[in-house]
Design a protein that fits this description.
Layout: E1 3-9, H1 14-27, E2 32-36, E3 51-57, H2 66-78, E4 86-93, H3 102-113, E5 117-118, E6 123-126, H4 133-152
Parallel strand pairs: 1-2, 1-3, 3-4, 4-5, 4-6
């Protein structure tokens, strides 16, 4: 059974709700899930033999939410080499802003720099198009699951 760690960065709670929803739905598929709270992230380096999903909203001018910004900075400064890490990112944003899903893009760039491999394309959920980002994220799970299954084959 594969273990999936889920991390979220949120301003108003939507990204947290999406991460909580995904944690439950992915657990139903017989994965062991672990939802890390922002205070769990101090010193956290993702394990390369576990999967990682990051769910983050974007604030300001494409900035990271405060609750995940410290971990991002820590990863960037420690710069652990993670060549076996497989990850997926879900970005919540508003396409009326020039920096749509900027936080998700920053995480993707950082993880690529650390040698990690993206399992799926970043799922960008647009607040202009959906009022329930957890629904769109749930509909994405089969795409994610197919990518995970292709690793095993």
């Amino acid at each position: 059974m594969e273990k999936v760690n889920l991390v979220f960065g949120t301003v108003y709670g939507s990204a947290q709700f999406v991460a909580e929803t995904l944690t439950d739905k992915i657990a139903e598929l017989d994965f062991k899930t672990n939802l890390l709270q922002p205070n769990d992230l101090v010193g956290y380096v993702p394990s390369e033999d576990e999967l990682l999903i990051i769910v983050t909203s974007t604030t300001g001018q494409g900035d990271l939410p405060d609750d995940i910004a410290q971990w991002f900075g820590e990863l960037k400064s420690v710069a652990p080499y993670l060549p076996k890490l497989q990850y997926s990112i879900i970005g919540l944003g508003d396409s009326s802003y020039e920096t749509f899903c900027g936080a998700a893009k920053q995480f993707d760039e950082l993880l690529i720099e650390l040698g990690a491999t993206s399992l799926t394309e970043t799922l960008e959920i647009d607040a202009c198009e959906t009022m329930e980002p957890e629904t769109e994220a749930t509909e994405w799970i089969p795409t994610w699951q197919a990518a995970v299954q292709s690793l095993a084959s």
